[in-house]
Structures are given as structure tokens and as C-alpha cells.
Design goal:
62% helix, single chain, 0% strand, mainly alpha
Length: 165
């Protein structure tokens, strides 16, 4: 049948977006873990309004916030990449090949690491290495807002076609 000239394949393969939901739920659980375990049962208001000198565990909080930002940004950007570059698609590590999300995740991780490294080198070059901790403390508070409050609208693949610009 498929070799006949009048045959049209009407089978539609739906896109499976369950991984987006799993990643967003995982990010929410990371934040719940951070608030309950690392920040010692702090409420959201206490966490956002705490001062630098009253805070503890700044590095683990910054790492968790960075992971959540990296994951959600990768989910958001990966749907706008048409194809994975041929050079990257030809790499097979342990029999696996990177898809659009994996490629975007690696790109965002390298960007985030380069940004953090350049920020660290900047503060060390001006002789204010102690201010790097203060900067990271305020940075993970600022970056907490859009990830926690807006990502369920930005990353929902069902809402993206209907968003008005």
C-alpha cells in the first residue's frame, strides 16, 4: 500500500511534552528542599527579606537557584531551536545522541559557568573578593522571583502559542 501513488499517510505523531512538566515539578521540589532543609524551615517572605549577615548556607542556596534557572531557561529556549547542529548531532557518547533540550542545556550551562567565572575574576581583579559573596547572595534572591513566579507561564508549551506579545 505505501508504494501506491495515491496513498497518503494520515497518522499524526503527537509531541510528548511530559518532560517539561517533570522538569518544572522537579524545580519546585528543589525549591521546597532548599526552603525546608537548607534554609531551616524559612517561609518565602523570611527568605526573600533576610539580610546578608543573618543568612546561612548561601552557597548551597545559590547552587540550587542556579540549577533551577539553568533547567527552566533550557526548557524555554529549546523549543525555539529548529535543529541540533550537525557537529553536535554526530557526537555519540555511550550510544546516546543529544536532542534539542540536551544541546540547549549544555549551552546554557557553559554560558552560566563562563558568566560566573568572569564575575569571580572581575571581583578578584579589583581586590574585592569578599563582595563576590554579597553579590551572589543578592543575585540568587533576584533570580528567585522570575523562576518561581513566572516559569509556569513561560515554559508551558500549551500556553506559548496563545501568549500575546
Amino acid at each position: 500500500m505505501p508504494s501506491s501513488p495515491n496513498y497518503i499517510n494520515h497518522v499524526r505523531i503527537p509531541e510528548n511534552n511530559d518532560w517539561v512538566i517533570f522538569i518544572l515539578i522537579g524545580c519546585v521540589f528543589l525549591y521546597v528542599f532548599m526552603m525546608n532543609i537548607i534554609e531551616r524551615d524559612a517561609s518565602l517572605k523570611d527568605f526573600l527579606l533576610q539580610k546578608y549577615f543573618d543568612a546561612s548556607n548561601n552557597l548551597p542556596s545559590w547552587i540550587i537557584t542556579s540549577c533551577v534557572i539553568t533547567l527552566t531557561l533550557s526548557v524555554l529556549i529549546s523549543q525555539y531551536i529548529p535543529v541540533v547542529p550537525k557537529l553536535i548531532a554526530d557526537l555519540h557518547v555511550l550510544g546516546y545522541q543529544l536532542n534539542k533540550f540536551g544541546y540547549t542545556l549544555l549551552a546554557v550551562i557553559f554560558f552560566y559557568l563562563a558568566k560566573s567565572t568572569l564575575g569571580y575574576l572581575f571581583y578578584q581583579s579589583i581586590g574585592d573578593g569578599k563582595k563576590m559573596d554579597y553579590f551572589l547572595f543578592h543575585l540568587h534572591k533576584i533570580l528567585f522571583y522570575p523562576v518561581f513566579f513566572n516559569d509556569h507561564f513561560m515554559c508551558n508549551p500549551l500556553l506559548l502559542p496563545y501568549r500575546q506579545k
